[in-house]
Amino acid sequence: MKTSLFNKIFLGLVLAFIYIPILSMVIFSFNATRSLTRWSGFSLMWYKELIFDSEIRSVVIVTVVIALISTFISTIIGTLASIALTKQRKVIREAVLSLNNIPILNPEIITAVSLFILFGAFSITRGYTTMLLAHIAFSVPYVIITVYPKVRSLDPNLTDAAYDLGATPIKALFKVIIPQIKVAVFAGAAIAFTMSFDDFAISYFAVSGTAIQNISIYLYTLRKGFVPTINALSSIIVVIIGIKITFDLVKSKKRKIEE
User: Fold this and answer.
1) I need a labelling partner for 253 at 20 to 30 A (CA). Which of 54, 123, 149, 209 fits?
2) Is pLDDT of 2 > 80?
3) What is the DSSP letter of 210?
């Protein structure tokens, strides 16, 4: 009984430690003044400013576009690489998977500096393109480690059967393999999108010295100090994520009931 009570209290403290700062941010996004500690009344002024702030709007567009494009490309590369790996000899497969884990285990700053030096060595002008290339580069390994186990678990006879029935390699890929691994592909894409949307260090080094900014770089380089419109933007992101999680949970429960 005491152990059960202790576990509940401990779990409550952990959840409070995680969610109280987020709840505070959401509450003060409706504050009538700039204060982040003293409530002065309910107001939607910061949301109105967010809508008409062209700088923040530009930052959000860059962040979302980079995340979408890099996710799309890295998901294709990672999925095809995962399928190709299953056809390789064990020695090659294990070597590639070990190399694939290095960018994941590396501190992010190491990857950022490496890309910074690489772009400089090839005299690639830093900006939108370098940020996109950087995001694709660090997203691909996450897609591979997500998709590869699912591809590995497939029955190899499925592809052979498709070939025997007259399917070309392209048809076998889209009609047989992809439908079987689509859940893992979506999971890999979700991780890639999250990593891109959230990234700071790699993005900062990839576009160092240019006017291109995503949300994380914008927050880091704020010259006027913290502004409450960021609270409003962050609250909107939290609400969108909450809606997505709720939708997935309801969909999952509905699927279980049908089964």
Assistant:
1) 149
2) no
3) S
Q: Which domain holds residue 152?
A: 55-221
- CA dist 180 to 89, 111, 141, Å? 23, 33, 21
Q: Is residue 67 part of a domain?
A: yes
* Residue 126, phi then psi, degrees to nearest 5: -75, 135
* Helix boundaries (H) for 29-87: 45-52, 54-85
Q: In this model, does residue 106 exceed pLDDT 80? A: yes
Two tokens at 179?
């439908």
| Domain containing residue 164: CATH number | 1.10.3720.10
Q: Which helix (H) or strand (E) holds 27?
A: helix 2-28
Average pLDDT, whole number, for the chain? 86
CA distance 42 to 3: 42
Kindly tell me the burial class for residue 26, based on how many C-beta atoms sit within 10 Å of its own C-beta (0-12, 13-18, 19 or more). middle
Indicate the number of domains in the chain: 1
In the predicted structure, residue 6 carries a pLDDT above the cut 70 = yes
Residue 154, judged by CB atoms within 10 A of its CB (0-12, 13-18, 19+), counts as middle
Q: Which of 243, 241, 234 is nearest to 27 (CA)?
A: 234
Angstrom CA distances, 20 to 39, 197, 203, 254, stand at: 16, 23, 29, 31
144 domain residue, yes or no = yes
Residue 167 lies in a domain: yes
Q: What angle do CA 18, 23, 29 make, to 5 degrees?
A: 140
What is the distance between the alpha carbons of residues 197 and 62, in angstroms, rounded to a whole number?
Answer: 10
Q: Please check whether residue 185 lies inside any domain of the structure.
A: yes
For 3-7, 18-22, 112-116, 199-203, which range has the lowest pLDDT when averaged over its residues?
3-7
